[in-house]
Amino acid sequence: MRVHDRRATVRGAPSKAPGGIERRGRRGPEVTFLVHGIWQHGSLLGLLSRVLGARGLNTRPLSYDFLNRSPEQNAAALYRTIQRSGARRVNLVAHSLGGIVVLHLLEQHPEMPIGRIVFLGSPVKGSFVAERMHANRLLRPLLGRSIERGLLGGAPRYKGPWPLGIITGSGSFGISSLLYPVGEDSDGVVREQETELDNVSDRIRLPYSHSNLVFSRRCAEQVAEFLLVGRFRHGPADAAGAGAVADKPTTIDSQTDTPSG
């Protein structure tokens, strides 16, 4: 898979309002930032972004460089991107490695005006698959710097006080499972126990594999539900309402946003 490593200034891509009118910097009072996982890009969060937008949430998918920067460095860059957005309240939705980046962000800046947080299949306790890949000298480079206080363990603990919901998958097939079987109690890549955190508000498990958590409308609806009411629907799915239009991905620049020191 091609790894995204653009070196452009961080800015939100302009979107088009109905009628073709260009709309720049949609700076509402609340912004939901979407943080992708390893070997991914913000553009892959399109379905999630659209579903959340249909529920009235102002979304901003982000892209970051996991190969050349550690989760801690990406968190620092994410903070600067959030600051430039002008958002007075911030929701965070993160898939896989993105959840670890968010934990670093919360550790670095607990003063942030956080609303609610959702993690999708994030191996916050470390990843068995990453451990096995790191032991293989041919596969090790694919992990980049994501292993530093990240996929090999050592991520910050979650202490709250913000509402945090965790969605995990039960689809036991993943590409990596062909090389490193993780067992039935997993999403095919991440084991259920690897996603566990203290002080969590709610958890739900859906019948999807690790990657499909971000391509499932049902999962996206559950994310929206938690962001709006602070809990998941543990019953029949409800229809989504109409609302805001989602923004295009924002790139966290690896030159202008690299922390000093």
Plain-language structure description:
It is globular, with a radius of gyration of 17 Å. The protein contains 5 helices and 9 strands. A hairpin with a 5-residue loop joins strand 1 and strand 2. A 7-stranded parallel beta sheet has the order 8-7-6-5-3-4-9, with helices on both faces. The protein has a two-stranded antiparallel sheet with strand order 1-2. Helix 2 (about 70-85) packs across helix 3 (about 95-110). The chain has one domain: Alpha/Beta hydrolase fold, catalytic domain (Rossmann fold), CATH 3.40.50. The longest helix is centred in the N-terminal third of the chain and has 15 residues, at about 70-85. The protein is α/β, with parallel strands linked by helices.
Query: How many alpha or pi helices?
Result: 5
Q: What is the CATH topology?
A: Rossmann fold
Q: What is the CATH C level class, in words?
A: Alpha Beta
Rg result: 17 Å
Main pleated sheet: 7 strands, parallel
Percent strand equals: 15-25%
What tags apply to this protein structure?
single chain; 261 residues; alpha/beta; Rossmann fold; seven-stranded parallel beta sheet; two-stranded antiparallel ribbon; 5 helices; globular; disordered N terminus; disordered C terminus
Summarize this structure briefly:
The protein is α/β, with parallel strands linked by helices and 261 residues long.
Describe the SSE topology.
Layout: E1 15-16, E2 22-23, E3 30-35, H1 46-54, E4 59-63, H2 71-85, E5 89-95, H3 97-108, E6 114-120, H4 128-134, E7 164-169, E8 202-206, H5 217-229, E9 250-251
Parallel strand pairs: 3-4, 3-5, 4-9, 5-6, 6-7, 7-8
Antiparallel strand pairs: 1-2
Helix pairs in contact: 1-5, 2-3
